[in-house]
Automatic annotation (TrEMBL):
It comes from the Bacteria. This is Dihydrolipoyl dehydrogenase. Keywords: Disulfide bond, FAD, Flavoprotein, NAD, Nucleotide-binding, Oxidoreductase, Redox-active center. The active site is a redox-active disulfide bond. Its cofactor is FAD. Binds 1 FAD per subunit. One of its GO terms (molecular function) is dihydrolipoyl dehydrogenase (NADH) activity. It comes from Mangrovicoccus algicola.
Amino acid sequence: MADYDVIVIGAGPGGYVCAIRCAQLGLKTACVEGRETLGGTCLNIGCIPSKALLHASHEVHEMHENFAKMGIMAGTPDIDWAQMKSYKDDVIKSNTTGIEFLFKKNKIDWLKGWGSIPKAGEVKVGDKTYTAKNIIVASGSVPASLPGVEVDEKTVVTSTGALELAEIPKKMVVIGAGVIGLEMGSVYARLGAEVTVVEYLDGITPGADAEVARQFQKMLSKQGFDFVLGAAVQSATPKEGGASVTYKLKKDDSEHTVEADVVLVATGRTPFTDGLGLADLGVEMTKRGQIATDAHWKTSVDGIYAIGDAIKGPMLAHKAEDEGMAVAEVVAGKHGHVNYDVIPGVIYTWPEVASVGKTEEALKAEGRAYKVGKFSFMGNGRAKAVFASDGFVKMLVDKETDRILGCHIIGPSAGDLIHEICVGMEFGAAAQDIALTCHAHPTFSEAVREAALACGDGPIHS
Ligand code: FAD
């Protein structure tokens, strides 16, 4: 008899959620984690610490920009950076220990150490080998490297180093205008750094709806961001007291160098599968280094499954979690399912940017007949009251059926507002269904309803 029904390798949002669901479904479950704490990239060095710093720095921004307008005379805020980092560490700790509690509650064994799979049905941790009917690999991802860029995690940093800087930089260069670069750039811009973003493409947030991306760039520029687009970074080198970045502009091949106290390399992440022994087992990989899986997260080797950042698809915590729950159902003999067409994406800057479903560019490329319903937060009373009226909701619906195909929001609480649309899309809703639903006043969500109204007879407040 096997030691376990399931051994999950990796305790990030994919792995720990999977382990909990397996245990809830009555499977004897263990989870292997090599890090000192549970929660993976997300809780330790990703989603959670970055949101803590975004929250703290947003409060600083509010003090500078809006407090006096509301008659709150707080003066210039004094920033105790050590205390801000310690607040961030407390937030991490309360989350990671929360997962430990959930493991105990669900009787999941945490096998501490780095795991490998000597053969199907076996997992080795340290010098112990455990047997399992099913193995689920949720080993996550690590920052991608860039040729010519020497990361020392002090002055040339990945997102991990950016969460732990010794001091708030006066000048920061961010390589890559994706989600992580813009979020961490926002933290330091709000804390007073001069931030320059160097991006290879001609626009920011690749893959986003182009209209939203343009508006977002304008808003970040107003907040002091400087963008160098169409620029191929040649090198980034730590040097005494800082670092320098050299890039070539694609338009004329001219070479430029910028100096900064800190350079953040945020050019994406790559699956992490080192040390698992997958090649020896004959587990098929994709050309991009991801573990290849079928529609039920099964790898090419029987009894081994994979989920999360280690496989294809958006590298997002909630995508990993959904796969974790679904694969648990599969190994328990049920029917796990993830709808990859309805996975929201959020950028937690101010304002937030959120999207789900198709972009306008994708619909054009498909030749699909669609309608656009747009509503500006200028017409939303609540947004005006909190100085957040820059931005809009853009809904894309099928021209004939009015069915929602996508939604893109730039504005206050966009990351929460988008879920109304996610639920609508799961139920096959039309814009009319949202438009006919009573929305509480005054809420930001009225802007979503107005965008839905704009797909039909027109919004009220514009
Ligand atoms: P991970 O969270 O990477 O966890 C994998 C775990 O497996 C790690 O703890 C690792 O130590 C362990 N492991 C690996 N190999 C072994 C082994 N052989 N033995 C034992 N243990 C092993 N996503 C969002 O959705 N929202 C956000 O706001 C967001 N913000 C982010 C901000 C930053 C700065 C970063 C870096 C990422 C962010 N992400 C965000 C992405 C998110 O963190 C990942 O998509 C998510 O963590 C992936 O989950 P996972 O379970 O697949 O892997």
